[in-house]
Write a structure and sequence with these properties.
Layout: H1 14-34, H2 39-43, H3 53-72, H4 79-90, H5 93-98, H6 104-122, H7 127-130, E1 133-135, E2 141-143, H8 144-172
Antiparallel strand pairs: 1-2
Helix pairs in contact: 1-6, 1-8, 3-4, 3-6, 3-8
């Protein structure tokens, strides 16, 4: 059952617990949206330039993974990690060619593995960590709270795309 309250959860500091509550709510809604999809549904393309639901799910997992590396390890992804995640990160042609023919359990497992690491690692930090100031190479300031907010907004945005694809699927069946 989906909890429709944002509250501090678990063994986390107050704000991190609230962030975890939002991450978990967002994921619960996404999982509800994709429940029961077949491999054909997951691979469906609305046109030759679109992304599939499966590719969008891998993209959601890849964005969270990259943000784990950036925030927990304070580095960029390396070449080995890029091999696994590049198609999902970039989407488009390469994703259409390589992210397909997987059943829903494959995507659920990828999402779960990445989330499990997030929940395990983020409990090692406190609320002050969320507000630590950083600067990108281009001089733009940011903090970890923003980066994790981006994980949320990215998933929510792509869930909207998933809903549109599902509507097109229904129209074509």
């Amino acid at each position: 059952m989906i909890d429709y309250r944002i509250k501090s959860v678990g063994c986390y500091s107050k704000r991190i617990g609230e962030l975890v509550s939002m991450l978990e709510h967002t994921r619960a809604v996404t999982l509800k949206e994709i429940k029961g999809l077949t491999q054909m549904d997951l691979d469906y393309l609305t046109d030759e330039e679109s992304n599939s639901i499966g590719a969008l799910l891998m993209h959601i997992a890849s964005i969270e993974f990259v943000h784990q590396v950036i925030t927990f390890e304070e580095r960029d992804i390396n070449s080995k990690e890029l091999l696994k995640w590049q198609a999902a990160l970039e989407l488009g042609h390469h994703a259409r060619q390589t992210i397909k023919l997987n059943h829903l359990d494959f995507y659920l497992n990828e999402l779960a593995l990445v989330r499990e690491r997030t929940l395990s690692q983020i409990k090692n930090y406190n609320d002050d960590w969320l507000f630590e100031e950083r600067q990108w190479d281009n001089g733009v300031q940011h903090n970890y709270y923003y980066l994790w907010f981006h994980v949320l907004e990215d998933e929510i945005s792509h869930r909207g795309q998933i809903r549109l694809i599902k509507r097109r699927l229904l129209q074509n069946n």
